[in-house]
Each structure stands twice: as C-alpha cells, then as structure tokens.
Amino acid sequence: MNDKNSCDEPCPIARSLAFLGDTWSLLILRDAHFGLTRFDQFRKSLGIAPTMLTRRLATLTEEGILEKRLYSERPPREEYVLTAAGRDFLPVLIMIGAWGSQHRSGGKLVYIEDAETGQAIKPVAIDEVTGAKIGSRPIRFVLPEDD
Amino acid sequence: MNDKNSCDEPCPIARSLAFLGDTWSLLILRDAHFGLTRFDQFRKSLGIAPTMLTRRLATLTEEGILEKRLYSERPPREEYVLTAAGRDFLPVLIMIGAWGSQHRSGGKLVYIEDAETGQAIKPVAIDEVTGAKIGSRPIRFVLPEDD
DNA sequence: TAACATTGCTTTCAAAATGATAGTAACACT
DNA sequence: AGTGTTACTATCATTTTGAAAGCAATGTTA
Predict the structure, then answer these.
(1) Distance CA B67, CA A31 (A)
(2) Which nucleotides in chain C lie less than 7 Å from some protein C-beta?
(3) Domain B12-88 has CATH 3.40.50.1970
C-alpha cells in the first residue's frame, strides 16, 4: 500500500495518487483547465521554479495527462494541452474545490458557473445508478477475488 | 499561489491542496474512511515511517479533519476519528478513485459497493442544480468583486 | 516479581526533493 | 548590433522525507 510508481496497487485511489499526489501537479492541471497551455503562463501563474515546472510537465506528459503540441515552427515552440484523461480529471478538481469552499471558506472565494447560462454550479458526487449522494449511504471497498 | 497555511488564496482548490496536497494525508484519510483509527493500524497499512505518521496525524488533527478520542484510560490510549469535515471528504476520495479506475486500470482493482444492497457504485460529479454532469458543459471560474 | 509484549510515539541522521538564482539557446524585432 | 521573448538547464543551499533505533507507560505471562 505504499510504493509510488510501480502500481500493482489494487486501490484506485492509491493509483491516482502515485503521480497526482503532489500539489504542483494538481495546480498545473487546474490552470490547464482554466485555459493555460504555455510554460511561462504556468510559471507566472504558479510562481513555481522552472526546474520544478519542467519536471512536472514532463511527468504529466509521460503519464498521458498532458500532451505537447507545436504552436510555432519558427522559432520552434511547444505548448501543453490536456488529453482526454486530463480532461476527465476536471470532476476531481471540482470536488476538491467544493470541499475547500465548504470547509476552508473565509475571504473572497472563486466559484464556478456555467459558461453559457452564468448559473452558479453546486457540485456533488452521486452514484450514477441510484442517484444517491456519495456519503449518504454506507459503502464498502471490495477487492475482487480471482476464482 | 504557493504558500501553504496562510491561505488568503481565493481558489478553493488551492486552499484544499494547501494541506491535503500530499499523498500520505490522502492515504491516511482513505484508511480512516475504511475504518482505521489507531496509530499502528495506519502505520502497518501504509508502511509509513512513524515520524511521518505522527506529523501527518498532528496536521490533520489541527486542521479539524481528524480528532483524537481516548479509547482506553489505563493505559491512556488515543485513536483518531474523522470529524464532519473529514467525513465530507469522502466524495473527493471517491472521485479520485473513479478517475484511477478509468485511467489507471489493469490488474485487480478495488471497487466500491453499497454496504447494504451490495450494488456496485458508479460515482459521477454533477451540478446539483441542473443535474448536468461536470465536464459535459463548459464552465467558468469566477472571482467575485467586492463593490 | 521478572521478563516480555503492546501501543504510541521521539531521536537521529543520511538521502532525496525542493526552491532560488543565474545562465543558455534559438530565434524575432528594431 | 543590441534587446526581447520563450523555454528551458545548471548549480547549490535549504527543507523534507525515510529508515532505524530507542523509549515510556502499561498489561500479560511465567
């Protein structure tokens, strides 16, 4: 239950955390969802050291969460855009934010709204099958047996 | 955008990450939701060094996510139980796990089921107001002005 | 009653990760 | 020719982490 990158881990939470368990990667993903794509945009937005940023972008790229795209041939320049896996990470970020809004409020707080209707969004996690809110009923973690 | 505990941060994601942005804290919370409460249970489950565990439990306790409870007077022994804020973190963990299941699958994978009905749970994040899946419509991050 | 086990830590120290600062490479612009 | 932009790399001090051992308060066993 403790090694980082080999991941024979049967726990999907641990698998996610194996490479998303640091603050910078998550903040980079937040900014990527916000629309940033370039090295210097991330660097300025986050105040991150370039060494760190290089490493984090490389890892996220290797992991298939971001991908490099050439946006200028002369001079050759690349930007980092979200892959499908990266875009699928939005609900996770939103739920992290929802928890922060509820339990770490105080002062000005960013909220999210529908880009078209302008309606504020109240994110909740539910079970798609029954529609019940996650947390409203007791759950169990199950490790499937191979019979 | 990078200091940990002062948090005048207007971004709720950054606020959450300020103290939840490390793997150990999240794995401790996972185990706490799984039912573990004692120092040695966490230590054995995670294979974490006691130094680390002490510090992480102390931080989570200070932050009001866990609280200490005396479970034996002689000898005096304490356990760590989730507070309301800690219990509210479950949807975040579940969404992290859901992403891992989708994008880091392979081999045996733990899944979650309803503890009473035994029905497997498919977690999704939706907007409670409209019922739309998070990610199905474009969203915007908004920083409120103080007029 | 002496010895060992249990639980929840603390101490120590080496190794790894991080952060700050400076520098570089490839070009464009003036 | 000199300056600016973008995306980095190199260097090195500081901080964090991890592994191992030790310890205190009690209970249990012989």
Answers:
(1) 33
(2) 7-12, 18-23, 26-28
(3) no
